[in-house]
Specification:
Distance between the termini of chain A: 49 Å
Largest interface: A-B, 48 and 49 residues
CATH architecture of the largest domain in chain A: 3-Layer(aba) Sandwich
EC number (chain A): 2.7.1.48
Radius of gyration of chain A: 28 Å
CATH architecture of chain B: 3-Layer(aba) Sandwich
Helix content of chain B: 25-40%
CATH superfamily of the largest domain in chain A: P-loop containing nucleotide triphosphate hydrolases
Strand content of chain A: 15-25%
Protein name (chain A): Uridine kinase
Distance between the termini of chain B: 34 Å
Largest sheet of chain B: 8 strands, mixed
Shape of chain B: globular
Pathway (chain A): Pyrimidine metabolism; UMP biosynthesis via salvage pathway; UMP from uridine: step 1/1; Pyrimidine metabolism; CTP biosynthesis via salvage pathway; CTP from cytidine: step 1/3
Catalytic activity (chain A): uridine + ATP = UMP + ADP + H(+); cytidine + ATP = CMP + ADP + H(+)
Oligomer: heterodimer
Enzyme class (chain A): transferase
Helix content of chain A: 25-40%
CATH topology of chain B: Rossmann fold
Chain lengths: ~500, ~220
């Protein structure tokens, strides 16, 4: 019996489209009469539309090796390989006893919880966080309290003998592959695997093959071949077949990336028609006042000859100014009577809940705010997100998330990032927080430097609901005139931390 | 953006945050660690506001992408002068913004016999007359000691319009008395209180700042 557990090739990313849909629906139902809504570009984050591949075929036909070949030839991060073996149904005591005597039929479709598999893949397809169960073949039960969490991914490969069996699962897939091999080849592979690698005895293996595996393969598995888009021969060298498939998958992913970039660009175009697009008149966007001090600090920050000591010092100062500005509009509540040490009473004194603030830093550039965050609120909880842009497609990928418990209960969530350039990683960070039920109005994005394009994308993608506090906005026109290209390179965090 | 409710008085913007910070330090139930922390935050804002009044000069710099950036640079030397003891609590806030700033000290106490403020001690930078001076004292109540301290500075050759008097709380009465003596000194403050009681304490005030910051 195959024992492979799920392998996630790189712990993968991402959040939810469901939430997104809900929100959009809610908004459009409320504002359906406003032309505003129809003009708002629909931004579908790339991580919410994974490419799903199903691989089926008889036991021993070589599904796992085909899947691994695809993964390694694809060489895309966020490829997740899920084995249907994880979805075996828990057995009753009686069934379990039979299983130990090799009398339980693990090779029948009903042994696998295909409904749960569907639910998981559906969640992944919606960009939601999903927990894949872990099955213990020792106890014939799911390992309690242990699951493999997976978030949406670029590519999801689901393999198992019944990979192409379930109609609902088939509908979720973008590509269905059947790995074919003659049953005698399958038997030979099974025997060598079970005896050599898994220490079973020959008799038991043959017995199981004859009683269950072969019958099911003929009865249930072979017919699923008709559901396949491609049938891969497993008998011989199949590199050419796999290469063809990989090329196909890559072209589909390229199309998706191109669509993503187009959508990102649309976010800036449509913006120009909206009144909230001049930053000065947009109450949601605060570019800090350019006092002489702030101008002098900014000069130090962009000057390439500023030494590290000074760079760190002045960036910290800028961070304090930005954070303080971001907190100016904290919600207040009234304390009925405040008594001073000299016993004067102040009626209805305004208080702020400084302990109702949390922060989420985007590793690494948001970490430039850490010292100042602690100096602003000493015991603040700090969440972290690691989002990296794919160097080829520019698509953001969530590599890690460490968020405060009950983050949605905080009154103010500071989202900290060094620079907004393309805006894509910020879009993803905000989306992740939305998936944690953080209200968008409670978020304040705090950045040292931002480009006009990046900010417009953020503003438009979320209907101008995110609060933004920024040290300096660099306009498109200045960058095009080659005066401020420095704003399109990431330099703040590398200078601050002293590693490129 | 700060406002100027009276001539040569800069009042920090009365944001929710700032008012919330003041409520913390005014509250008698606030424990000392919180009192210190939140006072320090206000002090930092006062220092930032004070620094904004200092002149800058044009300075073009080169960015790492090889472009010219028309920037500005700090102009002129500054120093801090704290009125011992409460004023010393504001030194760190100044240092946090200006790392190696020179800090002079002045001790003024009430003379037991005359009940008038008396200068006991002063230690000031040699070249103080060339500098912008941040005079530090958290409360401007009657203005007695601040006036005496400012007098010391002016006698050392500091120009009045180069003095910035930073305090956390003041009252109209205190401002008027102080400005009657030194109209050209800019007062930078975060709160305007109603007035003074019979003991000449600010009302509502926050009690004795020095005691709360250092002792109680």
């Amino acid at each position: 019996m195959p024992m492979t557990v799920i392998e996630d090739y790189l712990s993968p990313p991402s959040p939810s489209k469901m939430e997104n849909h809900k929100r959009r629906r809610r908004r459009s139902s409320v504002n359906s009469t406003m032309s505003y809504d129809s003009k708002v570009p629909k931004y579908v984050p790339p991580w919410t539309t994974p490419y799903i591949i199903g691989i089926g075929g008889p036991s021993g036909s070589g599904k796992t090796s085909v899947a691994s070949k695809i993964v390694s030839m694809m060489n895309v991060p966020w490829t997740v390989l899920i084995s249907l073996d994880n979805f075996y149904k828990p057995l009753t005591a009686e069934e379990s006893a039979r299983a130990f005597k090799s009398e339980y039929d693990f090779d029948e479709p009903s042994a696998i919880d295909l409904d749960l598999a569907y639910e998981c893949i559906q969640n992944l397809k919606n960009g939601k966080k999903t927990d894949i169960p872990i099955y213990s073949f020792v106890n014939h039960n799911r390992v309690p309290g242990k699951t493999i969490p997976i978030y949406g991914a670029s590519v999801i490969i689901m393999e198992g003998i019944y990979g192409l069996y379930d109609k609902k699962l088939l509908d979720l897939m973008d590509l269905r592959i059947y790995v074919d091999a003659d049953l005698d080849v399958c038997l030979a592979r099974r025997l060598s695997r079970d005896i050599v690698s898994r220490g079973r005895d020959l008799h038991g293996c043959i017995d199981q093959w004859e009683r269950f595996v072969k019958l099911n393969a003929v009865k249930y598995v072979k017919p699923t071949m008709k559901n396949a888009d491609a049938i891969i021969p497993s008998m011989s060298e199949n590199t050419i077949a796999v290469t063809l498939l990989v090329d196909h998958i890559k072209s589909k992913l390229d199309e998706k990336s191109a669509r993503h970039i187009k959508e990102l660009n649309k976010l800036c175009e449509i913006s120009s028609g909206h009144n909230y697009l001049t930053f000065e008149s947009n109450p949601k966007v605060i570019e800090i006042e350019k006092t002489p001090q702030v101008n002098a600090i900014l000069t130090m920050v962009v000057d390439k000859d500023t030494d590290r000591d000074n760079f760190v010092f002045y960036l910290d100062r800028l961070a304090m100014i930005l954070l303080s500005r971001a907190l100016d509009d904290l919600p207040t509540y009234k304390q009925e009577t405040l008594t001073t040490p000299s016993n004067y009473e102040i009626r209805e004194a305004l208080r702020c809940n400084f302990d109702q603030i949390t922060s989420v830093s985007l590793i690494r550039s948001g970490d430039c705010f850490m010292k100042s965050v602690r100096k602003t609120i000493p015991n603040i909880t700090i969440g972290k997100l690691l989002i990296q842009s794919d160097s080829l497609t520019g698509e953001p990928q969530l590599h890690g998330e460490f968020l405060p418990k009950d983050i949605s209960n905080f009154e103010k969530i500071l989202v900290l990032q060094g620079q907004v350039i393309t805006g894509t990683s910020t879009l993803m960070a905000i989306q992740v927080l939305l998936d944690y039920d953080v209200k968008i109005e409670n978020m304040t994005l705090v950045v040292f430097l931002a480009t006009e394009i990046g900010l417009k994308r953020i503003i438009n993608a979320f209907g101008n609901k995110v609060n933004i506090v920024v040290g300096k906005i660099v306009m498109d026109i200045d960058m095009k005139n080659n005066q401020m290209r420095w704003a399109s390179t990431r330099f703040i965090d590398s200078n601050y931390f002293g590693c490129t | 953006m700060s406002t100027e409710p009276y001539k040569n008085v800069s009042l920090l913007p009365q944001t929710n945050q700032l008012v919330g910070l003041y409520s913390i330090i005014r509250d008698k139930d606030t424990a000392r660690p919180d009192f210190i922390f939140y006072s320090d935050r206000i002090i930092r804002l006062l220092v930032e506001e004070g620094l904004n009044h200092l002149p800058v000069q044009k300075r073009d710099v080169m960015t790492h992408t090889g472009e010219n950036f028309p920037g500005v640079d700090f102009l002129g030397k500054i120093c801090g002068v704290s009125i011992v003891r409460a004023g010393e609590s504001m030194e760190q806030g100044l240092r946090d913004c200006c790392r190696s700033v020179r800090i002079g000290k002045i001790l003024i106490q009430r003379d037991e016999e005359t009940a008038l403020p008396k200068l006991f001690y002063e230690k000031l930078p040699e070249d103080i007359s060339d500098r912008y001076v941040f005079l530090l004292d958290p409360m401007l109540a009657t203005g007695g000691s601040a006036i005496m301290a400012t007098d010391v500075l002016i006698k050392r050759g500091v120009k009045p319009d180069r003095i910035f008097f930073l305090n956390l709380i003041c009252s109209k009465e205190g401002i008027d008395k102080y400005h009657a003596a030194f109209p050209d000194v800019r007062i930078v403050t975060g709160a305007l209180d109603k007035g003074l009681n019979e003991q000449k304490y600010l009302v509502p005030g926050l009690g004795d700042f020095g005691d709360r910051y250092y002792c109680i």
